[in-house]
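Researcher: For the annotation table, I need C-alpha cells for Right-handed parallel beta-helix repeat-containing protein. Please keep the output clean. Sequence:
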Amino acid sequence: MAEGSVQVTHTGTSRWRRRTAVYGTVTEALAAAADGDILVLGPGTYRENLVIEQSVTVRGPEEKDGSARIAPAEGVPLTVRGSAIVQRLRIEGQDIAAPAVLIENSTPELSELLIRTSSASGIEVRGGARPTVRRCQVSNATGVGIGVGDGAGGLFEECEIAESGQAGVSVRGPAHLRLERCRVRRGQGSGLSVVGGDSAVDAVDCDIHDIKGAGIRLADRATAHLTDCRISATTGDGVTMESDAVLTLTDSEIHDIPENALDLRSRSVLTLVRSTVRRFGRNGVSVWDPGTHVDAHHTRIHESTGDYPAVWVSDGATTVLETCTVDHVPDALFVLDSGSRADVVDSEIEHVRGSAISVSDGATARVEATRMHRVGTGAWFRDQGSGGTVTGCTIDQATTGVIISKDADPAVEDCVITAPAEAGFYVSARGRGTFTRCRVTGSRGYGFHIIDGCRSELIRCRTERCSRGGYVFSENGPVLTDCHSDEAIAPGDSTAAEPAAPAVPARATATVTAQAQQPAAPETAAGADAAPVAESRPSDEVLAELESLVGLDSVKLEVKALIDMIEVGRRRQAAGLKAASVRRHLVFTGAPGTGKTTVARLYGEILHSLGVLERGHLVEVSRVDLVGEHIGSTAIRTQEAFDRARGGVLFIDEAYALSPEDAGRDFGREAIDTLVKLMEDHRDAVVVIVAGYTAEMERFLAVNPGVASRFSRTITFGDYNAEELLSIVSRQAGEQEYELGEGTREALLKHFTDLPKGPTFGNGRTARQTFEAMVERHAGRVAQLPDPSTEELTLLYPEDLPPA
C-alpha cells in the first residue's frame, strides 16, 4: 500500500457489492465511506483535520510498517462524532485553543492512539459522548491530558498521560468518567481534577505520580471512587477536597507526599477503607470546618517525614478511625476547637514521640478498645470544655498514660496502663476527670498523680508496683470509691514526694493509700457502664455463617443441638410450660487453628439473638490476663475480666495454664476458684467457654470438683484434613482476587497431605500461612516479567508453593 494513501473497503448488504478503493487523502476517503466501511491509512503524514461522523473503522498501519501521523497546521486534528472505531494513529496538534482529539455526541472506540500535542487538551470528551478508549498515550506539554465535561463520560482503559501542562485528567460537571489501569504522571496543578455538581469519577488500579501540585483535587460537590489506586511524588497535597466533595478510597495507597497526604475542608466527606498513607511531610489526614468528615476503616497511617500530627481535626470537623493503625509519627491525633470530634475504635497507635491523642479548645474524643504502645502521652485532654471518653484501652510503655489539665473533664473507664515512665494518670491545673476500674501496673513513677485543687473521681481503680507511689494527691483532692493499691502505707501516714510531672511544674504533695481518702460513695452495679447493646443479627443469619465455615461438621451439629435445646426451652417457658435446665458453659478441646474462637464468637451472637444474652460480645483472655503476681491481685483481675464479659461470652484460651502440673504457690488456682464462684453467683449473666488441647483440658477439669459441673458439654475440634485445608486456601485466594492455576489444587492437596500433623500443627493458620507464602513467591516470580498480563498477575502455580 502506497505511503500517504488510504485504502477503503466499501461494504454493502450483499457480498457482490463489496469493493476496495484507494484515495489520496483521508478526507476524500471519509467522504466516500459509508457505515461499516474500513479505512486503512498507509504510513506517512496527513496534514488534515479529520472529522469522522460515520460508523466506520479507521485504522493506521501495523507498527512494523511505520506510523500514520495526523498533523494539521491548526485546528482539531481528529474529531469523532460517530460510533466509529479508530486505531493505531499518531495525533499531533499545534493549536493551543483547540483539543488534539475531540469526541462529541457519540460512542466510538479508540485504541492505541499516540497523541503528542501542544493543545488545549489531548483528548476532549463533551456533548454527552461516551467513548471507550484503550491503550492510548497522551503527552500535552501545554494543556489538559484528558478533559471530560458537558454531560459526557466514557471508559478509559490502560491509558497513560505521560505529560500535561495542566491537569492530567480533568472532569467538569456534569460528567461521569471511569478509569481502569490508567497512569497519570508529570501533570501540572493536579493529576486528577474533578469539579462541579454531578461530576464523578470511578478509578480502578490507577497510578498518579510525579505531579507538580496535588495528586487529586475534588471541589464543588464532585464525587470520586478510587479502588486499588496509588498516589505519590506530588509537590503539593496528595488529595485536596473542598466544597462538599465526596471521595471513597479503597485498597489504595498515598505515599511520598511533601505536604498533607489528604486535606479536606468545607463539608467534604472522605471514606478510607483498607488503605495506606505513608511518608507525608505535614498531616497524613487534615480535616477542617463544620460538616467535614472522615471515616477510616482498616487503614494505616505511618512514617511521617515532618513534625506534624498524623491526623488533624479542627474547626468543627469530625473523624472516625476504626480498626486503624497509626505509627512512627511525631503525634498521632490532634482534635481542636468546639464541635470537633474524633472517634477512635479498636485501633493501634504506636511509636509516637509526642501524644497519641490530644484534645483541646473544647473538642471531644471517644477512644474505645484502642491499644497505644511506646508513645509519649497516651491521651491528653488539655483545657476547659475538652472531654470525651476513653474506654477499654491499653497504654503500654508511655511516658505518661493520660494527662488531664486546665478544667478538662473526660471519663476514663476500664483502661490499663503498664510501665509508664512518669505516671499512669496525671491531673493538674484544675483538671477533673472520672476514672472507673482503671489499673496502673509497673510505673517507674506514680500510678495516679493528682495535683492540688483537682477534684477527680476514682472508682474501683487499682495500682501495682508503682515505684514512687500508687496514689499521690493532697487531702483536699479526689474522691475515691473502693480503690486499691499494693503499697503498704498505713491510713493517715504520708511522706513528702517531689512529683515528676510531665510538662506542668507541680508542688510537693503527699503520698497516701487510697483507703485513707474521702468516704466511699455507694458502689455501682457491676457492668452498669457496659457499652450499649448492639443490634443483633437474626439467629438464622449467624447460623448460616457458622455453617459456611470449612469443615467442623461435628462441631456444627453440637452447637446447633445446644441452640435447639435453648430455643425450645425458651418457647416452653413462653407457653407456661417447664423448660429443661440447659447449662450454656462449654469446653472446647482441640489443636490451635481449628476455629474455636470463631465458633465462640458466633455462639455468643446466637444467644444474643435469642434473647439469652444481653450483648453477645466476646471477651477473650488467657492466663496472663487473669493471674496476678501478688496475693489478692488474681481475684481482682478475674473479677474484672468477668465484668467485661457481662452479657456476653468469656472465652479463656489455653485454660489449662491456670492449673500447671507443678503448681506450687502458683496463683492460677485462685483464678479457677474465683471463676467457679462467679459462674454460680451470676449464672445467667455470662457464658464461659474454656479452650485448649484435649489432654490438658481433661486435667484442668479434674483440678477443681466444681469446675466440671459448671460446663454443659465438651465439644472437640478435630484437625482439618488435606481437602479442608485446600478449601481454606481456595477461599482465601478468591477473597484476594487470585486463582489457582492448572495443577495447583493437586499440588496443594499433596502438600497438605505430606505435612506432619504433630502437636505444633497450625490447621487453619497453616493454610493461611501457606497462601501468604504462595502470594509472596508469586510476587517474586511475576516481578521479573516486563509487562505481566492480568492472568499472570492472578494465577498461582505449583512452583509458588513453599518448600515442604
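Researcher: And a one-line annotation?
Model: The longest helix spans residues 553-574.
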